[in-house]
Specification:
alpha/beta, Rossmann fold, 2 domains, 9 helices, 35% helix, globular
Length: 266
């Protein structure tokens, strides 16, 4: 499985939009992938030929993209940009949304539009941060993800491995003060051995003690700038309630965060 249809949110904040475009390129690398830039305009916009306007604004940023990049201008009666963007994602059956983080608030939360998109989306969301690795066509990507014994963690890891390209790197971490919990790493590797072997995914593993920190703080301490994205799972997100670890990582992680939306019966 790969990201078949990637929608990239762009607006007048060119830096945030550029972050989203460059980060999205790493996920729209399959020959059958689609990547579209989407901007929401009010119904009273005076900008002529919106698609040409978007192409001109971001033509330098999409140069070198692995697939043809389309543009989609959305004229909406809805004053809520996040809602209009999510409606477009649903209509086009997008399976990955890429957005800039926006202005992170002093309490660590994302800007309003970005926060609402992450909370309301029923597909995976890549929240791009400025100081991330540059896109290099064909180069392996590297992901950092925490694992535990929960159903959400197991399903999230399967989803991540399915999204991986050949030779990607995945760093698995168990966050626990118990030495015995290191066995979780061996168990998840064994469970997913076929996918790991088929794609020649390079796996590294470690147990990291909490030492009085929250799980989110541990993950943010572990990331380095050569990692493509920190991966977190948001389970049964139709309730639009992000977990505390996901919220912390979105606001405090210095690199891009890939939020995998995981749904299962409880």
């Amino acid at each position: 499985m790969y990201a078949r249809h990637v929608l990239v949110g762009v607006d007048e904040s060119h830096n945030d939009s550029k972050d989203a475009i460059l980060s999205a390129m790493s996920f729209a690398s399959h020959r059958d992938s689609q990547m579209e830039l989407v901007s929401v305009f009010g119904k009273n916009t005076t900008t002529p030929d919106l698609k040409k306007h978007l192409l001109r604004a971001y033509e330098d940023d999409v140069r070198g993209a692995p697939v043809q990049v389309g543009v989609r201008s959305v004229i909406s009666d809805n004053a809520n940009v996040a809602v209009a963007f999510l409606e477009e994602a649903h209509k086009t059956k997008a399976d990955l949304l890429a957005i800039g983080a926006g202005a992170v608030k002093s309490n660590g939360s994302l800007g309003g539009v970005a926060q609402k998109i992450v909370e309301g989306s029923h597909c995976n969301v890549l929240v791009a941060k400025r100081h991330n690795v540059a896109f290099v066509p064909g180069a392996p990507r590297e992901f950092l993800v925490a694992v535990d014994n929960s159903t959400a963690s197991h399903l999230g890891l399967k989803q991540l491995l399915a999204l991986c390209n050949d030779n990607d790197k995945v760093s698995l971490v168990v966050i626990s003060d118990l030495n015995s919990d290191a066995q979780i790493l061996e168990d998840v590797i064994k469970t997913n051995a076929d996918e790991i072997t088929k794609k020649k995914i390079v796996i590294s593993k470690k147990r990291e003690a909490l030492k009085g920190r929250t799980a989110g703080a541990v993950l943010c301490d572990l990331v380095s700038h050569d990692v493509t994205a920190l991966v977190v799972c948001s389970a049964n997100s139709s309730a639009k309630a992000l977990g505390s670890t996901t919220k912390y990582c979105l606001g405090h992680c210095p690199i891009s965060v890939l939020v995998l939306k995981v749904f299962f019966a409880v």
